[in-house]
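ping. complex inputs:
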Amino acid sequence: MKLMLSEATGVEHGVHRTNLEAIITGLRHPARPQDGIATAAAIEAALVAFEEKSIAVRSAALNSSILRVDTERSEFVWLADIHARFAAAVRALADRASNDDSLPAAIKVRYCAYALLAGGHECKWRLIAGLRSAPSQTHLHHLQLGRAQADETADVVMSIPIEGSHRETSVEAVYMRALLLERLASGNLNAQQIEILDEWLLAWMHSLIVSRKRPEDENALVADLTGTRGFTLSLRGEPEGDPRGKVYLPLKPVMRQLDHAIERFHQGLIFPGFGLGMHFRIEEHAGVIDYLSREFALLMARREFKQPRKVVEGAREAAVFVGMNDIVSRAVQVSDASLLRIADPLAQAHTGTGTFSALDPAMRILTVSDISETGFGLIAGPSHRDALSVGDLAAVRLSAQSPAVLCVVTRKVALPEGHAALFGLRIVTRQARPVTLEYLREDDTNGSGGQAARPPATAIFVPGEDTSGRGDSLIVSETVYRGGTAFRVRFGGATFRVALGRVKKQGRGWKMAAFDVTALPEAAAPHASPQAGVSVSAPAASRHRS
Amino acid sequence: MSFSRAESALQFRASTLDGDLARKRLRDRYIAIQFPDYQAVRADPVAVVRLARELHDDGERRLSTEVLILAVQDRPQEKSLVLALVELAYLADDAGLFCAVAGYFRDTFPKAAENATIGALGRHIAPRHPAFVVRGGPAQGSPYTIPGWSQDGERGEDIRAQAEFRHLAMGGRHAGRSA
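pong. complex structure:
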């Protein structure tokens, strides 16, 4: 069926591609290149035509239900490529206009805005295609803003056609949109979420105001127009070098815009009310809200939130386990001989490799790029690149003897080399423990009866910071969470009834939930749990939140 | 970091969507995805306050604020929800949010006795705000006297069971339970 659909739309796509190529060719050879004003109008018309004629292709690519296979990826790469060529054609005309002394500044500034708008589109599609934004591209953005600043037109408000209607913007705003896309969409969001983010940034353009002075009372994003890097974080109160050539983005106004977007969802409206994102699932919008809320919280908070990373010299390897079952049975099991089978130090000594055994099919060996107090950067080659995605739960062992560190994959970026990917993992806990959850029979109201027909489920105990146990959590699969909210857990002679509560964190196929625990009478425990860990079952007696 | 648009968000009434099923469905879907736990206890203000308090204690202050705002939008006459929001803003030392919610409470429940307590808290957290300025000197009373509005519905916790569970889960030995 997918093939038939693909064949049916193939001809149509071919027509769209030809049309887009024709627009780029038209820009490369404008009819009257000597007329700067007419050329500006031609670029504007080309921007509108490019948007209109590419919408079917963009929509098809973003709404594809096919998994991330090579054909879909190649569609994204093609879109990135054609947007890059379109942006290059616009930039070439903008460069020529900047050297044309006969052109008034009011016209020149439009060229800068068009170049930055097209550059932003290019940036977005590169990120959607999983390609890194090139430093040279960032430098071109800096160049356009620098030109407009020199002409004192960077903040001049103008009306530009974007997503089907004219919107008020400025060179500063389209510059900020391009740099924010680079900063915010590099590996944490999926294709649809990047599109949603871009639509929000386009809607927020009136708030994306450049400041040449660092805000005194808050952290801000800063870009150095003389360099090739995008936004970095400028910390409040930290001494900073020469402010010349730097521009700042205060974060509070952007945060207020995010709250405005959230308010619209409270009112039953999809923000911003235009664009392809209007037709995406609400989950994708919620994903963008979650991500931006946490990212801005990190940026606005004090620096200790973001721990310094230490780059790992040489090729150090880490064993990574993905998925609840493998994590529980192969990575976090307490004093389990299977760990030694996975990575037997003696075997390592004999072979002299010093690396993990390659015999465990559940274990993936990745290269450690950097380490911080809060996470890891790991590099995966072609064989493991597709095994991890943002939102996955993973356990990382840096050596056979070290404890498994439970993490969530928060970032995935293709490396320039092509086939490898860099993963960002945020640590959930270094003290994960396996737990066995026993479902109780429906009629078992006090947790003292025998085991229900369903086989026990596995879970991971995550201790909280409070030693009283108040902040402890259990990680379970989505199926277990849906299947029953209360269980029985046994530790030797001690038995507890545990009821899963509020979901604190969740990702692909797993949920980390708070839980209420009640001690059951010791006589009620029939026998010890089959595993070294803990086991749980599910009636509804008095519950105590953990 | 707080929700910066609390003042306008609190003015919205979910009941205005009763005649617009598409928007109502979208709001409900948003809530189901972002706050599945709120969806489950939506009709019970005590449970909602408890949920907000738990989020607050977990460091999820924005979510804690948002869930109470959604609850106020659903049940605008439920005073306890607004009072919990006032208290959590005070505990978070978020003067902007506190003033916005305090103003909303004063306008919505002008005769409520709690306005006096809110005024006392306001004189500590926002002494220069026009609503809380007092002639003749600084605020009276301890800034650490908390009314407890956000603790409504908090259950007595089996601290011993929690601690024992944690001890055993972390590999400790079971010493047996005494009566």
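Residues 6-169 of chain B form one domain.
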